[in-house]
Amino acid sequence: VKPSVVELGTDVYAYVQPDGTWMVNNAGFVVGQSGVVTIDALSTEARTRAYREAIANASGEAVHTVVQTHSHPDHTAGTSLFGAATVVSSSVCRSEVDAAARRGPAPMTMFDWYERGDVHAVPASVTFSDRLDLHVDDLAIELHAVGHPAHTNGDVVAWVPARSVLFTGDLIFNGGTPFLMGGSLAGWRDALAWLRAFDAATYVPGHGDVFTDVSVIDTLDGYLAWLQRVAAEGHAAGVAPLDLARDLDLAEYASWSDPERIVANLHRAYLELDGGAAGAPLNVAAVFEEMVTFNGGPLHCIA
Ligand SMILES: [Zn+2]
User: Fold this and answer.
1) What are phi and psi of 301, to 5 degrees?
2) Is the pLDDT of residue 246 over 90?
3) In angstroms, rounded to a whole number, what is the distance separating the alpha carbons of residues 69 and 206?
């Protein structure tokens, strides 16, 4: 299924990539007379090239600014394809992108398919800690940092008040299992309460379809509350995250894509139950290995 450009109001677009699973994220863009601001890049050279072409077709303009909602490689790997564009992120996101760049490209052997191509994440040249406003002709894009660990340690939303559109990055997954390798379980729930206060008419999630019905946020928060509950029970019983994950009844969440993320999510919940600080790192390689074990083989990826 091909990605689609969704017009959300004059000059404001979402770029929605089915099926929203591993490394298949959404982005969005705002068009002005002298160029375009994109909210996020994509995960691979091929996907980011297709996105760049879609922007050019819709606007006739080139991208002069790339906003990174957070550091994850699906949202940042393609940044290098935007050439001389100014890259903007929270200062925490910049640190995370910079640290990842210094480590070099991850092997991505946990996936059954991933063809990165010739791209790399670029750390921001403009950073902020709380809020930064961009202006595209008369249209304001307010960038608001969550300010504490949530999905990652440096999440940002992009709010276009004149169109009542909120680009949430991965603070919202619509129809897929949310992913908590980094960030904070308690912090993510706080961020959802904070996010609701924008009272947007239209939400562009980091993965899954654009939506207007806030029950999507209720469902996600319900999942995180459920995760806290089952993790507390398993932790008290001394059951390891992978064993707990194998025995869990995912109930209403069983139909979501990427169910193996429950393993990472339980590790994050356990870390917090053990008194670990919000945003403290997990052993990413070890946790991905457990997800592959849970899945019975490499994780499904179409990127
Ligand atoms: Zn993410």
Assistant:
1) -145, 135
2) yes
3) 9
Q: What spacing in Å lies between the alpha carbon of 30 and ligand 1's midpoint? A: 21
Residues forming a β-bridge with 232:
none
pLDDT tens, position by position, 127-154: 999 999 999 999 999 999 999 999 999 9
Distance 33 CA to ligand 1 centre (A): 31
CA 11 / ligand 1 centre spacing (Å): 26
CA of 182 from ligand 1 middle (Å) equals 9
pLDDT, one tens digit per residue, over 183-206 is 999 999 999 999 999 999 999 999
Residue with tokens 């709380």: 130
The H or E element spanning position 13 is: strand 12-16
Could you tell me the distance, in angstroms and rounded to a whole number, from the CA of residue 41 to the centre of ligand 1? 12
| Residue given tokens 């001394």 in the structure block | 238
Distance from Cα 70 to the centre of ligand 1, integer Å = 7
pLDDT digits (tens, 9 = 90+) for 163-172: 999 999 999 9
